[in-house]
Design a protein that fits this description.
The complex is a heterodimer of chains A (315) and B (255).
Chain A (H helix, E strand, L loop, with lengths): L12 H8 L5 E5 L7 H9 L5 E4 L2 E2 L1 H8 L3 E6 L1 E2 L8 H9 L6 E4 L2 H12 L5 E3 L7 H4 L4 E4 L11 E5 L6 E9 L5 E2 L7 H7 L2 E9 L2 H5 L5 E3 L6 E4 L17 H12 L1 H13 L4 H8 L1 H6 L17
Parallel strand pairs in A: 1-2, 1-10, 2-4, 3-5, 4-6, 10-12, 12-14
Antiparallel strand pairs in A: 7-9, 8-9, 10-11, 11-13
Helix pairs in contact in A: 1-2, 2-3, 3-4, 5-7
Chain B lengths: L7 H11 L6 E3 L4 H11 L6 E3 L4 E2 L13 H4 L4 E2 L2 H9 L6 E4 L3 E2 L5 E2 L2 E3 L4 E4 L6 H7 L2 E5 L20 H6 L9 E5 L3 E4 L8 E5 L5 H6 L6 E8 L5 H11 L8
Parallel strand pairs in B: 1-2, 1-5, 5-10, 10-11, 13-14
Antiparallel strand pairs in B: 3-4, 6-7, 8-9, 11-12, 12-13
The chains are: A alpha/beta (315), B alpha/beta (255).
Organism (chain A): Streptomyces bathyalis
Family (chain A): Belongs to the 3-oxoacid CoA-transferase subunit B family.
Pfam families (chain A): CoA_trans
Chain lengths: 315, 255
């Protein structure tokens, strides 16, 4: 009965970025605080991609680094800040002073972005939401449009509602805890909008902490947030979400988040940081090694195992 | 314990926590709202469910979270749901009693700016933007705002940019609002309040030692004063002890 049908989609980060991220592409990088695909962003910087449209709900440190490296000409986002730890120096220079050049910026709210991914994933022409009424956002973002509902409202009258357009990235890259070789991807903890972002894209790259045997995934299929049919490449990259975290693997590097405001505020310091940590490392394994085992011990987490569930089997 | 040893963060957290009495669900951001919601959980609102934008419902963290997505919010939580469910069904579905928001600017109708200072196209300062604030405002039954700074630049007649509009602006745009918008604004000077659509924020309560004139002078519009202006009870020894020893013993947010 065991017919081997699974396709092995594993490749290195270098191969995945070289294959799926081209100059001028629209690239979605998702992961809401948890599982941010930082290592993928660094590889895009190493390979010197240009003129990218980057889509990321919470444009944070990795976006600031890609901006500073000259990879990005357009940003689509609903929150541009260093989490709750401060500012993004490069983004502010680009937006406030056109330094070194202007940045095209499309501003949304979080649910606006989520609805764009939903519409994109479902190949719908638009998606309605109860946001934006009376906001100045539609005035600076013409993609936000108001339509009259074709159905009567609760009181029988006509109802108006804002809609957002679909987004269909050329490629979506997400980070996850584990997948099998064909791309059945399991995430636990915060699952964010990763599945919708993957389904919205033409191609999807999943970066994982570890590749596991098919049986591991099949023992708990509800944990699979992204099925293999939506995945084009699987990249094994332990600790690839640093400075964000992977639930159950390592904790968030809060000290680095706090330090980023000062690093990014000073252009020379930021350039030196990129030289040392991105261009100065051949790949993420070198970056991880350069940080050192003692550092990683500081982000280690203890065990809190979920209790097993019984899926049952036919006798 | 005397009030002159109370820090601004402690004062704002305690006063905000009291406002959560009799509420069931609160959508909390990180920082002061987390402190206020956690303290309310231990005092006036033991059944309060704290919902985080990241998708966590019913968090039982072992340590004070440093972000709305902190790993300690996940382990032991009652539910962790995807963002489309959180924003689409929980928030837009009308399950949130109180949303907590902060902002760089607020006007007399409780409209908020968290996008830019200056012109959006050529800003003097680029701020983080909406995040989920637009949705929290549109769909929570009511919204509490905690403002660290109470001055004419922040409490302004005219916003530089409206990121998160209250129901008055939504109605004017032809959109039916679900909630009442901002009903309470808590600052170091006192509390501004309104019941909902069509009302201005009025000065409702003062901290001891603050006068209505002080607040008017620090507010950028002609602030009306409620007829039943009250004086806010200073944080009690119990409230302060809980906040300092149970909620934020490592003083992550208590400054």
């Amino acid at each position: 009965m065991a017919v081997e049908t699974a396709v092995d989609k594993t490749m290195t980060m270098r191969e995945a970025v070289a294959t799926y991220v081209r100059d001028g592409d629209t690239v979605a990088l998702e992961g809401f605080t948890h599982l941010i695909p930082t290592a993928a962003g660094h590889e895009i910087i190493r390979q010197g991609r240009r003129d990218l449209t980057v889509i990321r709900m919470t444009a944070d440190i990795v976006v600031d680094q890609m901006l500073a490296s000259g990879c990005v000409s357009r940003l689509v986002s609903s929150f541009v800040g260093n989490s709750s730890a401060g500012s993004l120096g490069e983004l502010r220079r680009r937006v406030e002073n056109d330094d070194p050049e202007p940045l095209a910026f499309e501003e949304y709210s979080h649910y606006g972005m989520i609805c764009r991914y939903i519409a994109g994933a479902q190949r719908l022409p638009f998606y309605p939401l109860r946001s934006y009424g009376g906001s100045d956002l539609p005035g600076v973002n013409p993609a936000l449009r108001k339509v009259t509902s074709p159905y009567p409202g609760p009181d029988g009258g006509t109802e108006q509602i804002y809609v957002v357009p679909p987004v269909n990235p050329d490629v979506t890259i997400v980070h996850a805890q584990r997948a099998d070789r064909s791309g059945n991807t399991q995430i636990w903890g915060l699952t964010g909008v990763q599945a919708e972002a993957v389904y919205a894209a033409s191609k999807a790259v999943v970066v994982v902490e570890e590749v596991v045997e098919d049986e591991v995934v099949r023992s708990d299929p509800n944990r699979t947030v992204i099925p293999a049919h939506a995945v084009d490449a699987v990249v094994v990259c332990p600790r690839g979400a640093h400075p964000s975290f992977a639930q159950g693997y390592y904790d968030r590097d809060n000290a680095f988040y706090r330090s980023w405001s000062a690093i990014s505020k000073d252009k020379e310091r930021l350039t030196a940081w990129l030289e040392e940590w991105v261009h100065g490392t051949a790949d993420h394994a070198e970056y991880v090694a350069k940080l050192g085992e003692e550092f990683w011990e500081g982000l280690a987490v203890g065990e809190a195992m979920s209790l097993p569930v019984n899926y049952g089997r036919r006798l | 314990m005397t009030t002159d040893t109370v820090t601004s963060s402690e004062l704002l957290s305690v006063v905000a926590s009291r406002e959560l009495a009799a509420r069931r669900t609160v959508f909390a951001g990180i920082g002061l709202p987390t402190l206020a919601a956690s303290l309310a959980h231990l005092t006036v609102a033991p059944k309060l469910e704290i919902v985080y934008e990241s998708g966590v419902c019913g968090a039982h963290p072992s340590h004070l979270p440093e972000t709305i997505a902190d790993a300690v919010l996940i382990t032991g939580a009652e539910a962790v749901i995807p963002m489309p469910t959180l924003f689409g069904s929980v928030l837009q579905g009308g399950h949130i009693d109180v949303g907590f928001l902060g902002a760089a600017q607020i006007d007399k109708w409780g409209n908020l700016n968290s996008s830019v200072i200056g012109d959006w196209h050529h800003p003097k300062a680029r701020l983080p933007g909406s995040g989920g604030a637009n949705e929290v405002m549109a769909s929570s039954r009511e919204v509490f705002v905690v403002m660290r700074r109470h001055d004419q630049r922040s409490f302004t007649e005219e916003l530089d940019f409206c990121t998160s509009p209250g129901p008055d602006r939504a109605l004017a745009d032809g959109i039916r609002p679900l909630g009442a918008g901002v009903t309470r604004v808590i600052t170091e000077l006192g509390i501004l309040a309104r019941e909902g659509v069509g009302e201005e924020l009025k000065l409702a309560a003062l901290h001891p030692g603050v006068t209505a004139e002080d607040v008017k002078a620090n507010t950028g519009w002609d602030l009306q004063v409620a007829g039943d202006l009250s004086v806010i009870e200073p944080p009690s020894a119990d409230e302060l002890a809980l906040l300092r020893e149970d909620v934020d013993p490592e003083r992550v947010y208590l400054r």
